[in-house]
Specification:
By secondary structure, the protein is mainly α. It has a domain of 221 residues. 72% of the residues lie in helices and 0% in strands. It has 22 helices and no strands. Helix 8 runs antiparallel to helix 9, helix 9 runs antiparallel to helix 11 and helix 15 packs antiparallel against helix 20. The relative contact order is 0.15.
Length: 450
Amino acid sequence: MELALIAVFVLGYAFIALEHSVRIDKAASALLTGTLCWALLVLGSDGPAAHLAEEFAHAGEGGLKVFFEHRLLHHVQEIASILFFLLGAMTIVELVDAHEGFTAITNRIRTRNTVKLLWIISFITFFLSAVLDNLTTSIVMVSLLRKLIDDKETRWFFAGMVVLAANAGGAWSPIGDVTTTMLWIGGQISTEGIISALFLPSLVVLLLPLLVLSFRLKGEIQRPAEAFAVHDLGLFPWERNVALALGVGGLLFVPVFKTVTHLPPFMGMMMALGVMWVATELMHRRKDLEAGKGISVLSVLRKIDTPSILFFLGILLAVAALQEVGHLLAAATWLRDSLGNVYAINTAIGFLSAIVDNVPLVAASKAMYPIAVGVGLSAWDALFVRDGLFWELQALCAGTGGSILIIGSAAGVAVMGLEKIDFMWYLKRVSLLAALGYLGGIAAYALLAG
């Protein structure tokens, strides 16, 4: 069963990578992969499903139901929080865009020089993702790119740099990336410690690929014709500004809400969406139905890229099945036993996170390596104290290693869905740049750590 599960995952991964060749939408491949992996997990006679069936034998026919409640639904709970977060962020961004709120930003970016614009976009993404998070920032920046760049190939290069910059910017902030947030909440790292330790290495992760692309990209960009068009939406300038302020303010509110209430981030995103929904309804309440049709939340919801959300669902279900059967924990254990060096272990975890989700990898590491406390610790144990080298390096590697493949991070998956970037295109043109930045960031951390 375990070999069959791996085979299904690899086959599904191949179909996702070769989407344009096989002419099957990646969302369909991901959903089939995720559901088939769980079906094999349940039906396997020698896997965890059988073990659980014996464990809950006293439940009779309800044994399988107990399995789903304690395993599948546990994972679905975590997946749903991510999907609701994504749905809320996409809706807010689309609502701001429908009100032409982003024109206030795009009109201020006047340069047409490709390299100069690349640096501007990359640094905006880098710092914005530290304040928001890499997923939300990627969605916002892709919306801006559509207003700034007409040529698809050039826009895809910029979108690739958005993925790299968002993941790099999220790694050094406790609220910028889900894995850093996990370590922060778990007590492995502190706010001051992670910022001071990872800011410069994360900057190196961005700068190395940015410098290489600066020599490869030439000329000037062509802005879309609609970027200069004036649409008669019956909007006043103050309405555009209010929509932009509410949208950006709502996204900034999410990490504050999480810090204050300790509720999952999607709750803050739903609250931000609710406030913006009410505000825009009040804003347009005196307009006739036809005039407000294209800018209402109900109209915007119809534009949401549902296939991307389903793709995300399928991928996370498949990874959860691998986690459940124990493959991810086995991989983490093998890394500990065979490598033994914290740099080698975390570097490998970063590369693995480009293939499978970094969340279960970090979760497995947290379970394997408890936080070391006390005095007189050995040299090895001292690496695992709060703000120790192992945890800081793991935040860097798990946060930025996913950029090597476009489906290796939440930011990459979101950008892939929004821009319809081909997996193989990213692999050929961006993956090596991402790997260069990733290894450079690790080297920079090693130099700073002494």
